[in-house]
Amino acid sequence: MQHKSLKNTLSACTVALFILLALGSKVNRIHYGAFQYSSSKEDRAEDGHYLVKNDGEKIHGDKISWKSGLLAKDQIKVDEQKFKITEVKGYRSGNTYYIRKGNEYIKRIVHGPRINLYVEFTEVTTTSTTNTGFTRTRSYTRTDHYAQKGEDGPLLPCAGQSDFKKLMEDCPLAVEMADLSNKQMRKAIKKNPNYLNSIFEVYNNGCKE
Amino acid sequence: MKLFKTKDVFLNIALPVLAGAIIYLLAADVSPFIKNYFPDALWAYAFASAILIIWHREVNVAWLAVMFVAAVGFEIFQYKHIVPGTGDWWDIAVYSLSFSGAVFLNQHFKHTFQKHYSCNTNP
After folding, report:
1. How high is the ipTM of this complex?
2. Is residue A191 part of a domain?
3. What's the total number of domains in chain A?
4. Domain containing residue A33
5. Residues of chain B contacting A21 with CB distance shorter than 8 Å
């Protein structure tokens, strides 16, 4: 019985270790502020407020709002016209486009003929209690990035440079720009806050600067 | 006899983990697909083998099922942002193949190291 108990304990430790290793290899390595979030690559001729339904139809208006959640009806409104969130694949508000991801909309920060990039902001609050009973609350903004090949492609999670290189492997210049050490990348972003965005812009520009 | 089990652990746990780490950290001129998923496949194989070796290569369906559910569940939790990280459906496919591979090869390694496992179970 003791032998079996030891095996069960070892098995449980193995499963826990596997999960910890998996966690370590997939953690989002792109911190808040790594990209420029003010989108400047949208077609200005398309400025305005409109919804884009799943069939491509545009519904224009003056004001767009949406809400979703456990206790809220998932809907998006343009002026007084209401639609189910699942009927609307995206919307334009001024010079920024948002695409639907699940029951929410996330912002597009790079737009081009070959690849688009979106960012999702999540406010995270963590609470910890010290051994003296003092409770500390820490809040931060988590950013998750998603790439999209083509206008109707699926949203592909991007957690770091290896994902960028994988997505743009057919563009040696973009891969070279993404293939920097952590130190080199930090320097590049400090020198040019638009550096990461420019990797995607190079890809959209036919693999040219 | 102890040496034989050490060989099993080295061949099916240590070596795949080490190979996966080398590919992940050091390999430069490999396809991104290989660099991203091959280490995961090796590590998944190593962990399934660990479970099998712990149970002396008798297939413990319960623990293998726990490992599979944990792997799939974890990727789903990452995809839904319940835990940190980025969920990837390809990882689930890779884990499934590796776990299956480890179970498929189990009989072969049980036979190869049979003397040791029979010895170990004797009082």
Report:
1. 0.80
2. yes
3. 1
4. 28-47+95-204
5. 43
